[in-house]
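2024-03-11 09:14:02 DEBUG pipeline.ingest accepted 1 chain
2024-03-11 09:14:02 DEBUG pipeline.ingest length=132
2024-03-11 09:14:03 DEBUG pipeline.predict start
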Amino acid sequence: MKKTLVSIVFLCCLLFVSASLADTFLPMNTDTSTVLASLSISGDSANCVGTMNAIKGASSASVAISLQRKVNGSWETLHSKTVSSQGRYVKAEANYAIASGYAYRVKAVGKTYDSSGNLLETITRYSATYTH
C-alpha cells in the first residue's frame, strides 16, 4: 500500500512538472520556421528586432516588426517595419523614441513563401513586455 501511494504521488508530481514546462521549451521540429521578437529599452529609445529563420523548401521570407504600446488595457501599434529576403533568413531592426509611463512590446510576424510566391506559413511572436 505504501509503495502504491508513493508511486501515485511521484506520478502526479511528474505530470505537474511536465505540464508546467510544456510551454518553456521550443520543439525540435524542423518542419516549422522560427520567429523571434525582442525589445530593449535604453533611455527614451526602444530597439526593436524581429528575425525569421525559414524552413527548408521556402525560397523567400519576410518579417514585419511592430512596436506596440499598451493604452487603457489594449495594445496599439506605434511603428512598423517589414523586411523581405530571397533567402531563408531575414532580420528587421529599428529604433524608435518612446514616452515614459507605458508598457511596450514588439510584435514580429514572419512569413515564408515557395518559389511560386505562395504563402507557406505565417508565425506571430511577441517580445517580453517592458514598462518605461
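2024-03-11 09:14:41 DEBUG pipeline.report The chain is about 15% helix and 55% strand.
2024-03-11 09:14:41 DEBUG pipeline.predict end
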